[in-house]
Amino acid sequence: MVAAAQTPPPRSVGLDPYGQLIRMLLPRAQSISVYGTGGQTFWASDGQDDPDLHNLAQELMAADAATPNDIDGATRRFDGANAYAFVLRDPQGLALAAVTLLARDNGEARPFSLVLGLLRPALECLQRELGMKASLGAMTRDLSTRDRDLELLLDASGEKADTTRDTDELGRLVQAAVDHLNCSIGALIIPERSVAIVRTKADQPRGHEADIITRTHRHLLTWAQLQRRTMIVNKIATSSDKVPPYKILSVPVRHLSHRVIGFLALFNKADGEDFELRQTRLAELLARKVTSILLTNYDASTGLLSRGAFEQQVDALLATRETHAADAVVYLDIDQMHVINENFGMHVGDETIAKVAEVVRRRAPLGALCARISGDRFAIFLAGASAEAATEAAEAIRTSVAELTQQRTEGVLRVSLSAGVAALPANSKHPLSHALATAEIASKAAKDHGRDRVETFDNGDVSMVRRHGEVQIIASLREAIATDRFRLYAQPILPLSVGPAEPRFEILIRMLTETGELLPPAKFLPAAESYQLMPAIDKWVVEHAMMELGAHASVLKGRVARFAINLSGQSVSDPDSAAMIEAALGAAGIPPDIICFELTETAAVTHLERAESFMQRLRNLGCQFALDDFGTGASSLAYLKSLPVSVLKIDGSFVRDAISNARSESMVKAVAQLARAMGITTVAEYVETDELRIRMANLGVDYGQGFAIGKPIPLSDVLADLSLYELVAAGGGDFGTPDVPALAG
Ligand code: C2E
Ligand code: CA
Ligand code: CA
């Protein structure tokens, strides 16, 4: 009945782009508002909201859950205007928010379905955005501004935490609750997530707290699940020794779907203070924070840590170490998952993954951090464990997983896994990713050796090293970096319609093998990424691109061409890279405003804060930024407002799709319009045919890049023919004429 996320988006990321987008799609729209399920106004175009629309939104959102991820709603007439309300739903079919607007169209009302069809691209973007926000724990930010008390509490959870004990956010939260609310004991119990956290006041000796929890937790859980509300016990019958001598405040912890999955309980000694409204309110807010932490930090279908949370927790744990200790990781990969999916169906595949996850959770040694890092792959971090101890743990899990093999009517469902073990390197900047990469190699070796086994990564084991291509690539990559065996290519990006505009080029790297073959990035960048070699490669590209451009510095001054250089996420988060780029620009003596850096959305958004300051610093010099592969990542139009982006590169898969898929087509159009309204230039990637070129031009995209416009050619050739490209770009869409054959590459 009620709705999923009662969370306004954080203030820093406004909803104005969506309002603009809606107006662009339906120019007569007025009084556009976005309402939350708790009655809050997330955004209103006129700065104030209309009570009729507000009521309509609340009424529609209060209805039962509907089709998951759908957008539904209704239309009404309010004094001379047509009101439309759209309810955006989450994957459970619960309301996320409602968008309302008025359209004064001289009496004739347009059918709801027609208006929905018009606005769908904008509403879908917003739906994704809000869905993401809901799961990003935006909740915390809102709640903290509402309640100063809570703000204090959350601060405490970040800083005063006893980090040697609490690398875990949930542990910190329970500790903060105990300290701030001055209780004796706090407990958070969520059986289906294997969460059982008990904390006592920091300055108090730890007594028999576990005892009271063991005696009460079943009762408290049942009560929470049946009653679904807060329980307060301030009166204690001291006569009975069955009842523990504690005052209790217990708050249900809910899943996003509102199902009660556990409880947060606070205990006070019988002679301590009573629990009152203030503590109750704060505890309830904290329980909601727990829900949002669970959402971000845990994989929804297995309950194991998500990859991000896993890395964060391991890093936090390593950071508290004063001296180096042996640690190990285990990488687990379910064997022949595709065979299971094909023979038994995807649902059996999903079930198998969940069962394996359960085994991992149960059999992993106490204190181990277990994560699902992607589809059928898991990782375990074992603090203070030798490679031998980790191998033993992996072996125990392997044996139990093999027992999941069963006879089904369709045939034998064989379940097994290949595990790799690696020790964390002592002197690495990124010990975890290093160890995970080597453990992954060991698990691949386990597969090569016949599956259903555990292998330990051994540097000296030449056979393992040989077997693994990635390792070889890495060796030759390192050598290529040292001996400059790369070549720079450039691909033209040209205006799609008439009108003066500058030609642009994207610089692309190629690797030269010992035999003189040119390797495309797909052959070596993935390996470079897992070995943290991207910053070195980006540095090579930046320095050499600037050098080649610098050789033409006199030609480039006073020209309008721009050159784009790709940067990886690893470089964006590397604090030294901005300085390196500044130095290279200075040495080359070229105007900084002819350089544009391409970042993927994922890179920019995962390191949002660093990316912002990195971009700002280079922008102050005059460089531009492009958001690459737009539409594939954690795509979010609102980020466009907070990041200093001048160019948006619409991902090739989207562009290709636009011919056959009307929804992709309208998305491209909406994005192009929105970008234009924000003063951002758009580029369509993968323009492979003339048909696509024309289509993209008609949809309002500014520039095209792709084989139909020009293939990548050596950067030096581009620089030699620059004036030709300028001529072509100034001619707009006319570049397909036979007198410029050079562009066919
Ligand atoms: P990207 O940034 O999306 O670059 C565009 C890729 O699409 C290039 O592949 C380009 O050759 C290819 N392409 C261009 N037009 C078409 C077309 O019409 N159809 C098809 N199917 N493909 C087209 P490339 O050069 O192989 O680069 C692949 C990826 O490698 C790039 O994707 C980029 O993410 C990365 N990359 C390339 N050079 C560098 C570099 O110098 N530094 C960094 N960090 N990454 C690079
Ligand atoms: Ca790119
Ligand atoms: Ca791209």
Query: What's the CATH first level of the largest domain?
Result: Alpha Beta
Distance between the termini: 60 Å
Number of helices: 28
Poorly predicted sequence stretches spanning 5 or more consecutive residues: 1-13, 136-167, 733-745
Output the radius of gyration: 29 Å
Largest sheet composition? 8 strands, mixed, barrel
Portion in strands: 15-25%
Q: How many domain regions?
A: 4
The neighbouring-strand order within the major sheet is 18-19-21-22-23-24-25-26
Structural class: alpha+beta
Integer average pLDDT? 82
What is the total tally of β strands? 27
Ligand kinds = ligand C2E, calcium ion
The coarse overall form would be globular
Name given to the CATH architecture of the largest domain: Alpha-Beta Barrel
CATH superfamily of the largest domain: EAL domain
Helix content: 40-55%
Using the coordinates shown, work out and report the CATH topology of the largest domain: TIM Barrel
Tell me about this structure.
The protein is of the alpha+beta class and 745 residues long. The chain contains 28 helices and 27 strands. The strands form five sheets. An eight-stranded mixed β-barrel has the order 18-19-21-22-23-24-25-26, surrounded by six helices. Strands 2-1-5-4-3 form a five-stranded antiparallel beta sheet, with helices on both faces. Helix 1 (16-25) packs across helix 25 (662-677) and helix 5 (148-159) crosses helix 6 (169-180). The model is unreliable at 1-13, 136-167 and 733-745 (pLDDT under 50). Ligand C2E binds at residues 491, 508-509, 520-522, 525, 538, 541, 566-568, 598, 628-629, 686-688, 705-707, 712.
